[in-house]
Amino acid sequence: MTIKITRSDPRYALLQRSRNLRWDGNPAEAAAEIELCETAEQTAEALQRVVNAGARPTVRSGGHCYEDFVVNNPGGTILDLSLLKSDALPGDGNRYRISPGQVLGEAYISLYKRHGVTIPGGSCFEVGAGGHISGGGYGVLSRLHGLTIDWVSAIEILTVDKKGHVALRTIDEKHEPDLFRACRGGGGGNFGIVTGFLFDRLPVAPVEVANAHLSFDWHSMTEDKFTALVLAFGDYCATRGCEHEEWGLYAAIGLTHISSGHIGLSLQFCNPDGRCDDLKPLDEFLDRFEEFSGTARRAATPGEQRFSPRSPAAREQSEKYDIDRLMWLDATVGDSGSGHSGRAAYKSCYMKKNFTRAEAKCIYKHLTRVIPGVDLRGSVMAVDAYGGAVNRKEMADSTSVWQRSSIMKLQFQQYWEYEDEDAGRLAWMREFYTDLYSQQVDPQYAGTPFPNEYYEGCYINYPDADMLAYAFWPQLYYGTGDLYPFLQQVKRRYDPNNIFHHKMSIRG
Amino acid sequence: MTQTTSSTTRCRSVDNPGDGWTRREFLRGAAAGIVAVNQLPKAMGPPQFAYVGCGDDSLRVFRVHGEFWTQIQRVPSRAPAYVLVSPAQRTLYVANDVDEHEGQARGTVEAFDIRPEDGRLTLLSRTALSLSATRPRHMAVSPDGKLLAVAAYGGGIYNLVAIAQDGSLGQVSSIFKDAGCGPHAQLQASAHPHTLLFDAGGRHLLSSDFGSDRLSVFALEDGGLRRRMQRSTGEGSGPRNCVLHPSGSFVYTWHGLEGTLVCYRYGGGGVCEEIQRVPLSAGGLTVHPSGRMLYTAEGGWRIDATDGRLSRGQRLPAASQIVVSHDGTSVYFLDGLTGSIDQATADDRTGEVHCRTNAAVVDNLSSIALKTV
What we know:
The complex is a heterodimer.
Chain A: E1 3-6, H1 12-15, E2 33-36, H2 40-52, E3 57-60, E4 77-80, E5 96-98, H3 104-115, H4 129-134, H5 142-145, H6 148-151, E6 154-160, E7 166-172, H7 177-183, E8 193-199, E9 208-217, H8 223-238, E10 249-256, E11 262-269, H9 280-287, E12 314-315, E13 324-327, H10 328-333, E14 343-351, H11 357-367, E15 379-385, H12 395-398, E16 408-416, H13 422-436, H14 473-478, H15 483-494
Helix pairs in contact in A: 8-11, 11-13
Chain B: H1 23-31, H2 35-39, E1 49-54, E2 58-65, E3 68-76, E4 80-85, E5 91-96, E6 108-114, E7 121-128, E8 136-141, E9 147-152, E10 157-163, E11 169-177, E12 193-198, E13 204-209, E14 214-221, E15 224-232, E16 239-244, E17 250-255, E18 260-267, E19 270-279, E20 286-287, E21 293-296, E22 299-303, E23 310-312, E24 321-324, E25 330-334, E26 340-346, E27 353-361, E28 365-371
């Protein structure tokens, strides 16, 4: 039996809540009930009941979706998989299993302690595996090992057939390969309910990693200096960062609004063998930022810190920089990692080239913009080094992540607390994004990083409903090739009645 | 669709004009069987205004002068596939047959205030339907005028929307997501609710689903919809229009894919046994308020009110939609192909059509509703 939580249950308020408080508190949008499912069989039975009752199922694993896709469902049912956590079932043989309700931190711990392997997933401990992997599953080790979905060998999924009957399928490259490909990065809440990801093999986890943090004082920043800093980061990603020995270096620069006081740069590094015996590439990377007077620092603003340091196993391995050598698992699960749970907004962009000078100036303009009455602290444009193993071109055809040419991945983030700040903050963020992506984009796609020589669109796991204003929004997320038509075909075949839907789900 | 012929020539006048009942007697006599009439304003006369939904994203308002119509207003409205005047004759509801609203996969419904003195429309509200409730094509207002039920053909979803005191529509208050299919791979790949009707008591909604070959009856419970029964209409039958007989005892359904017209017994909030099945290749079903005539796009069928059985009646003009005035004295035939709207005089006791003229020609017309005083 599932655990059914109705409005009268004291747990309802907590369980129907969104992490992003922008989607919280509107009773007209709230689900009537939440069913906590602990096994695939329970999930199948609950899903069948929901379909039979004419209700709409909303599928949730960790509940970290940036938009309202796992929360708002007027009068419907949230099927909450956060208790579906089994990481090994009889019959899995030598395969590794990740269940949708496992959070990433649990998966890292379990896979590492049991087998010494890991998935190249995200850095937030509490993000649920179900949604994270469905949308690609990208993180700190992705440059070294690709996306999590690149490693998935089979998926167990509940679908609802055209007559409304629930079926549990195990899909892989030989069994229903079209649905399998669609589920490898097409995004959650589209085709069914994943009850397990299976992996024939997984990358060996690093033994240790080196972490470093630099901080640049906003108040000593000029437009020229800012531009040079941004270009220096992008230049690394576009050139030296593409070389194999560098794939173990993951770096992210958090371009905050000036009101935050400083810009942070965080990185994690290991050699391709998963050790830290040769830190020269790290020194070389940090040398690129010497001229910007970066200082090592510990604290971070919301959204800036991507992984937090624990007691270092060793320090000052480098003569010049304050670098912490940490056991990899400590570095990875040390983050309480829940992310922020106030109000938030997000946007994204994949970049194929370094920033142009014009882009850097545009970014500077908006990050130094002062709007009377609008507090822009908590705003950051996180620029992650990307590429490496992600850019194995052949993976584009066997997965639904087509972006395999980018060298940086941008996540625009904003965090705040009070509803009365929404309008001013969102307006600033939209103007920033629209302005930035109106310069090097064909006028008909102005305001978006529409795929072209500079950009590869947006990331479906950073969904941004603002993009729905553009009729071409599917191309932003799924490209201009045959991927979106393919996903539509899969949608029509496996969910003809559109049982699974949210604002940005595939439209058959 | 049968070919239309020129319809501007007057035909013979009403037979036996002085025969029998006065209108007042008719209403009194009908009231026992026609619950909907109870909700209508007391002195229902002939229609004064006509509202036509057009494929050019507009609504046209016509003043009705007997058999001649004058257009008095044109109002923008996206894809108005279905228009409906509220029981109190104060509000026009429009189903916008669209699959996207503000970038999201939703259809919309609109409410327009009808100015009593001149029939002109003013937009009161536009309501976004629930997510995935795309391409709404049919609606029904509850007999008490407090609830609008919408059938979203594209998304296979029913929505309930509360009607405020001024006739405007609030947010969607209840959602029923249906699932199903039929054997026709293209047309019946998923559920497609086609027609939605409140039954006489107002506690149940009857629907036909073209995509999944079924009739359903939903109960209104706790402000939502619960399916209390469903009945297969046969694999590949494709039920489209359905109408309830004024007695509330029979439902007539056009099985569009199969090409048949089927009469089922209806009662106790359920669709019961099949009574009769006759060939019919085009729908447009409408029952005359007398309960004695069923109009279809292929002609009239006389109804035996005791058992609901049909027998062939008059030939009628080609039509994609047919509407009858509340008083039963006028019938309007819309031909979606030619855009012509023909008016015919009808016998208010039998529904026999006696006289026909062309009232208007409107390009791209899709639906029509009449307002009476």
